[in-house]
Design goal:
- Keywords: DNA damage, DNA repair, Methyltransferase, Transferase.
- The chain is of the alpha/beta class.
- It folds into 2 domains: 2-66, 2-Layer Sandwich (Double Stranded RNA Binding Domain), CATH 3.30.160.70; 84-171, Orthogonal Bundle (Arc Repressor Mutant, subunit A).
- Helix content is 33%, strand content 17%.
- The strands form 2 sheets. A 4-stranded mixed sheet has the order 3-2-1-4. The chain has a two-stranded parallel sheet with strand order 5-6.
- The chain is globular and about 40 Å long.
- The N and C termini lie far apart (45 Å).
Length: 184
C-alpha cells in the first residue's frame, strides 16, 4: 500500500498533496512530500510514498480553490487520524466558510466544547496536516486581524495573510452564505 503524492505550484509556493485510498491525508506548503509524510500519524507513515503526476479530483479541487472557487475543497474526503476531540475540532473548522474567521475559543464552541477549550483548538490547528482543506488559516487569536494579529500559521504568516486576502477578495469581504455562522 502506498500514499500517492504530487506537488502543485500555487500563487504562494509549492503545495504537496498526499492521497491514500481516495482521501486527502496530507497537504502542506512544501515542495517535499516526504517532509509532510514524516509528520503523519504512524499508521500512515508506515506507507511508502509514490509520486504521481495528478491526483484526479484532489488536484482539480485545489486548482479550483486557487482559481477562486472557494468551496472546491469542501467536499474532499480527508483522513487525519487523531483523538476524537481533535477530529471534532477539525470537522468544526471545515464548517467555517471562506471569508469568515473565528477565534480559538469560538472554534471550541463550534466543536461543542466550552470556550475554555481554546488551547485545545489552538493545538488542533498547530497539528493540522491538511491545509488549506482543513482551513486553520481562518482562525485568529482574540482581537483578530483588525489589531494586526494573525496568530500563528505553520507555513508562515505571509501565506495565512494571502489565503485570508484571497478568500476576502472573492467573497467581497462577506462571509460565504452557505457556511455555518461564526459565533460571536
Amino acid at each position: 500500500m502506498t500514499i500517492n503524492t504530487t506537488v502543485l505550484q500555487t500563487p504562494i509556493g509549492p503545495l504537496a498533496l498526499l492521497e491514500h485510498d481516495g482521501a486527502l491525508v496530507g497537504a502542506g506548503f512544501t515542495a517535499d512530500p516526504a517532509e509532510l509524510h514524516a509528520r503523519l500519524h504512524p499508521s500512515l507513515r508506515a506507507l511508502e510514498l509514490r509520486p504521481v503526476g495528478d491526483l484526479g479530483a484532489i488536484t482539480k479541487a485545489h486548482l479550483a480553490y486557487f482559481d477562486g472557487d472557494l468551496t472546491a475543497l469542501d467536499a474532499l474526503p480527508v483522513h487525519h487520524p487523531a483523538s476524537q476531540r481533535r477530529e471534532r475540532l477539525w470537522r468544526a473548522l471545515r464548517r467555517v466558510g471562506p471569508g469568515q474567521t473565528v477565534t480559538y475559543a469560538e472554534l471550541a464552541v463550534l466543536a461543542g466544547m466550552d470556550r475554555t477549550a481554546a488551547r485545545a483548538a489552538g493545538q488542533a490547528c498547530a497539528q493540522n496536516l491538511i491545509a488549506p482543506a482543513i482551513p486553520c488559516h481562518r482562525v485568529l487569536p482574540s482581537g483578530g486581524a483588525p489589531k494586526g494579529r494573525l496568530g500563528g500559521y505553520y507555513y508562515g504568516l505571509e501565506r495565512k495573510a494571502w489565503l485570508l486576502s484571497h478568500e476576502s477578495a472573492v467573497t467581497g469581504g462577506r462571509p460565504d452564505a452557505s457556511a455555518a455562522p461564526a459565533p460571536r
